[in-house]
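As a representative case, the lines below give one protein's residues and fold tokens.
***
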Amino acid sequence: MIDLRSVPSDPCELLSDWFVRAEQENDVINHNVMMLATVGNDGRPSVRAVLHKSFDMVTGRLTFFTNYNSRKSREIEAQPHVAIVMYWDRLQRQVRIEGRAERVSESESDAYFRTRPRAHQIGAWASEQSQPVQGPKTLMARAALVTVRFLGKAIERPPHWGGYAVIPHSIEFWQAGEGRIHQRLLYTCSAESESDWTAQWLFP
């Protein structure tokens, strides 16, 4: 449960604690999965699971990596406002985040790409994410060509692949309670500052 005696003034502190608990919980698989919602130019939302790869406790930025030609990226470039949900069933906890997504630096994308397994690096070159394909065999054939291309040498990051950082303007924590007496705590930041947070309890 959220400690009612010491609710932090900065939600990043609480979010960091929840991330650590989820990572340490043996029964939580893929603790860094988050559902990312974007909106297209037609106003229709779309949502998918992505993995957040880093969390900045100072700024609250959550970073994920993807193909810049994917549907999610095209929608972010046109409309950078996004929403995120993270749910850990084993812990009966949920976090909802709304904020703005922006590309990270090329150096940051390069650094993370170098840490990926080689097979994942090959996949980043082989896949034209979100585009039509005849079938899995086509992707496998493209991956084979990339494998040959980079045989015996390091695989550089494709120019169409990189990271986004989500800068939150609201973070909502939900903790299940007995008899549906849940805890729901919403933090919002002012328009003038990304670090000036106001906390408010909500009915569940």
Summary: The chain has a mean pLDDT of 93. The two ends are 14 Å apart (CA to CA). The chain is about 25% helix and 35% strand. The CA atoms of residues 133 and 156 lie 24 Å apart.
